[in-house]
Amino acid sequence: NAGVTQTPKFQVLKTGQSMTLQCAQDMNHNSMYWYRQDPGMGLRLIYYSASEGTTDKGEVPNGYNVSRLNKREFSLRLESAAPSQTSVYFCASLRVAEGEQFFGPGTRLTVL
Amino acid sequence: GIQVEQSPPDLILQEGANSTLRCNFSDSVNNLQWFHQNPWGQLINLFYIPSGTKQNGRLSATTVATERYSLLYISSSQTTDSGVYFCAATSGNTGKLIFGQGTTLQVKP
Description:
heterodimer, A: mainly beta, seven-stranded mixed sheet, 11 strands, about 0% helix, B: mainly beta, six-stranded mixed sheet, five-stranded antiparallel sheet, about 55% strand, globular
């Protein structure tokens, strides 16, 4: 049982490049989330998916798109990366009935 | 939306000392979690505690939902306890966690 996995662990992009961050969970959770963490701050919600086939904006959605590919996978896409998107990105999942959210190891992204 | 505030922002302890971290939230919650972010950036679940008291080894937590606060107790601190401690809460049924700014703990040998 791997829990929540994320790829890649590290990535460096140039301004204007695109990339997709991958997230998968094997806990049969319905809800999945993408957060970003900037230096010295707590995590902020980018997008979430309450169930397969649905997605909703969080606190800081601008510049991102998401896809809930199936129950296991939830990807985050940066279409045209900007230096302001330099951050650590965390994916999380939740079985709503239990209430506890579990996080992946994070992706450290630098945009030059 | 709900707001989460943590105190103190920074804490320096000698190994073996005890400490209490506080989390205040602005509205009723149906989920409250404590996390430890270690120096490698990994978020480790400590407690899921929307109300009541739980203990896990040297750590314990208490949430008083009616008074909108939660406390994390660390006893006999060790250098491996160093890192950032986050409190996060949700209200409603979407599961969206709102994080506090964290308490940075440094335990000196």
